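I am writing to request your help with a piece of structural work I have in hand. Thank you for your consideration; the sequence and its tokens are set out here:
=====
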Amino acid sequence: MKKKLMLLMSALAIGTFVFGMFGTGAWYSDTEATPNNAFTAGSLDLQLSGSQSLPFSVVNVVPGQSGMGKVTLSNVDCSIPGTLNVSLANMVHSENLIIEPEVGLNGEYTPDLGELGIFLNFTAFVDVNQNGTYDSGDFQLSYNGVHPYSSINYFAGWKLWPGRTMGPWNNVMTLACDQSVDLVIMYDFPTESQDANYSQNISMTDGLKFDVVFTLTQVHP
């Protein structure tokens, strides 16, 4: 009886092994695929062109003088829009010479830097329709941020005092693929000092230099 039981258990084990080998192969199956998955990177390219009035190259600037510079910004060779950012960099105030009309004046407090930036007024805007006028659809880069044009807007300009900078102006606008806009910067040197503590004579022979930097970044989805 014991021998018969052992033989029966052996037969069951062999049957289970054989079912494991051959039994699972009886299930139906079907395999499909989605072929040719591919990715192509988008592109944007900020190009500066147009008028040569920027960068400025102004010598012998004097009270009563004003001017304007313009550069065209284009998103070219592109497949995606970009967000325009503007900043100022590499600012340098130079005293150059301290000549007799400057000596002893109240306000000659930065003998190694120069004070021309105290007196020059700047105003900048993005001229979206490129008509040369600050109007509907344009964006002003003011001392306190980016402001879309409105009927009650006024030009909130800025000064570049020694030790002070302006900007950056981030997310100014979206520049579509193949779109062009103009950045306009205007300056003026008032005939009278806007601060009674400082005589304009302290700016004689002084210099002011800075870079205007433009960055175009992809629009986040």
Remarks:
- The CA atoms of residues 53 and 69 lie 5 Å apart.
- The first strand starts at residue 46 and ends at 49.
- DSSP finds two helices and nine strands in the chain.
- The beta strands are 46-49, 66-75, 82-94, 121-127, 139-142, 145-148, 169-175, 180-188, 207-218.
